Amino acid sequence: MSRTELICTSCNSSFNLLEYYHCPYCKGILEVRYDLDRVTASTGDAVKQELQPFPFSPGVFMGEGNTSLIRAKCLEKKLGVARIDLKGEFMNPSGSFKDRPVAMGVKAGIHFGHKRLIVASSGNGAAAVSAFAAKAGMEAVVLVPESTPQEKVSQSMFLNANVIKIKGPYSNSFTLAKILAETESLFNVTTTFINPYTVEGDKGAAFELHDQLNGYWPDQIYVPIGAGPLLVGTRKGFMEMASLWEREYTPRMIGVQARGCSTVAEAYERKEDQVQEVVVPKTIAGGIGDGLQGYAKDGTHTLSHIRKSGGNAMAITDAGILEAQHELASLEGLFVEPSAAAALAGLKHNVELGKVRAEDHIVLLLTGHGLKDMASAEMKKDIPLVGEHDIKRIMKVIKGS
Ligand SMILES: Cc1ncc(COP(=O)(O)O)c(C=O)c1O
Ligand SMILES: [Zn+2]
Q: Which residue of 47, 139, 279, 324 has the lowest C-beta tally within 10 Å?
């Protein structure tokens, strides 16, 4: 291979980097493949610059990426694990990791001469597309399920997107975006596997982890997954670095889902290869509430990456996710949304299953900010309202009596 191209992950056909949403022969998922022999980079940051589909095309930069890596010493102590690092993806400019894939998707859109974008999203992708479209001077049509948290809807509206709520689960928005992209010539930047370029943005966290950890790759990376492009993209980044620098080991990828929408986890637990759709997803963690209705093959794709990495998939109850959300707040001072907290819930689950060794080095991808979904941020007690002169009452509140 002598150039960057698209490869069908099902039939292995290759194509130029054109505007494809699936393999024209077999409808399989497409991914970008590079001629790694031409890459000269020796750091993660340099690889990030080189291994992208359109390195010479103009894009829009909003300050995305280069998120902090935060050592979680209290969690290490509590869980008895040697090292836990939290990758602060919620620190991206629109408040979630989606800025990475969307930046790449928008760049592809500009490259192909588009002025109008469409995205189906559970809210975070919507906000990211709205922000990047505004900055790029593009129009954004944003389809979100009716259950999307108001914070994410308002964020997208304030950023001037054309926001439309679609009845039913996320999959309905997904299917509609796919149809409208074709009939209305909108560029589809939905951040699943439909746009092969967005996953290239998801690789960013992997390259940064390499640099932030001075080349010491973690043993396990926990990723909340809907369809799973973030997990697949992160693994792709590590696989590319591994072949560039002839390293044999890549981190185990752990996919965490909610019990009420456990497409991939269910197939993993049943030792099946084919993922089944969930018709009525039911979870407080809306970001990972994608039932994959009509595109279960996306989950199958993610599952095969999880297995090949030596990782596992699991489903956590909403109560377990909310508990993890509180622990991240009380032990590490971080307020993330429930979908993000699922990563910690997954780690706790694997610790219980004995799948984590005491000497392991763990990374959790904290994907979305807590302010994005205030309704699900359960307050453990009521806020007292006290008269301004009522020192006695204030003292009682402080002392907890
Ligand atoms: C906060 C959050 N975490 C995780 C995910 C799941 O990501 P993926 O689409 O890569 O499966 C999403 C998706 O919207 C999300 O919003
Ligand atoms: Zn194919």
A: 279
